[in-house]
């Protein structure tokens, strides 16, 4: 198991409750967007957790010769996240159609 896979699995296990809640909210939002407020509120918590784990994964590597490796590792980690949550990039983005 690669390092980014291991960190993703640990993150998913440790925060299983909020990820399970966001799974439901994300699927409803993907269908019709009717729960935009919940999507952004819970989604922001999920994004904060993901960024925290990304920092843990890449900490100390940004300096020197491992900077490129760190960037690719972060990209692979986020690709695992977007496999599960394709609309994660829309968290916090408000549209004029939302109430």
Structure description:
This protein has helices at residues 3-14, 16-32, 36-58, 67-84. It is mainly alpha-helical and 99 residues long. The N and C termini lie far apart (43 Å).
Please describe the structure with a list of short key phrases separated by commas or semicolons.
mainly alpha, 99 residues, elongated
Quick recap of the structure?
The chain is mainly alpha-helical and 99 residues long. It is built from four helices and no strands.
Query: How many whole angstroms does the radius of gyration measure?
Result: 15 Å
Overall structural class, as computed from helix and strand content, comes to mainly alpha
Strand content: under 5%
Q: What can be said about the biggest beta sheet? A: none
Determine the number of helices (DSSP H or I, runs of at least 4 residues): 4
Distance between the termini: 43 Å
Poorly predicted ranges: none
Order of helices and strands: HHHH
Question: How much helix is in the residues?
Answer: over 70%
Number of domains: 1
Tell me the number of strands.
0
Which term fits the overall shape? elongated
Mean pLDDT: 89
What is the fold's blueprint, element by element?
Layout: H1 3-14, H2 16-32, H3 36-58, H4 67-84
């Amino acid at each position: 198991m690669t390092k980014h896979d291991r960190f993703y699995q640990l993150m998913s296990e440790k925060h299983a409750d909020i990820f399970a809640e966001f799974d439901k909210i994300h699927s409803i939002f993907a269908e019709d967007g009717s729960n935009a407020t919940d999507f952004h509120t819970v989604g922001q918590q999920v994004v904060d957790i993901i960024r925290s784990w990304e920092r843990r994964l890449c900490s100390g590597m940004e300096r020197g010769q491992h900077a490129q490796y760190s960037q690719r590792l972060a990209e692979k980690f986020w690709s695992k996240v977007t496999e599960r949550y394709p609309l994660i990039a829309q968290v916090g983005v408000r549209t004029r159609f939302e109430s």
